[in-house]
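Let us work through a complete example step by step.
Step 1: write down the sequence.
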Amino acid sequence: MKRKLAEWSRWLHIYLSMFSFVIVLFFAVTGLTLNHLEWFPEKETLRDSDGKLNPTWVNVADTAQVKKLEIVELFRSEYRVHGVLNDFRIDETEISVSFQGPGYTADAFIDRSKGTFHLTERSLGFIAWINDLHKGRDTGQGWKWVIDFSAIFMSLISLTGIILLLFLKKKRINGLIWLVAGLALIVLLYFFTGL
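Step 2: predict the structure and record it as C-alpha cells.
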C-alpha cells in the first residue's frame, strides 16, 4: 500500500506540475506585480468616440421599450467595445452603459432625445490586465473556473510533494524542518510586521 501511495504521489506530482506549470507561473508572477505596483507605472490610454444611434431605440416614453440589446450590440460590433456589461441605467434624459473587463472600462452616455452618444474607453495596460486576471476582477465565470482549478492543482502539487518527502528517508527530517521553519517565518512576519 505504501509503495502504491508513493507511486501515485510521484505520478500526480510530476504530471500535475507539468500540466499546470504555466498557470502556476502566471499566478506567481502576478503575485509580484500586484504586490509591487510602484514598479510598473500605469500605461493608461483613453479613446473617446462620438456617434449617433437610431433615436427610436432610446426616445420612447416607456423605458421598458428601450432597445437595450441593440444598443449593446452596436457598441460591441461597431466600436469594438469588449468586457462584461456592468451597468445599463436609464433616466429621463440620458442612458449610461458601462462595460468592464480586466484592465479595461468603457462608458457610454446616450442623449435620449437625439440618440447621440459619447463613448470613453480606458485601457490600463498589460500589467493592469494580468493583475485583474489574477484577482478574477471583471473576468466572467469561465476565468473564475480557471482560478479554482489552479488553486486545486497547486494544493494537490503541494500535498503530493509532502507525501513524496515522507517516503525519502534521508531527506525526510531536513525537509520537515524546512517546512516548519517556513511556516514559522510566515507566522512571525504576519504578527511582527504590524498587520
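Step 3: interpret the result. The chain has a mean pLDDT of 89.
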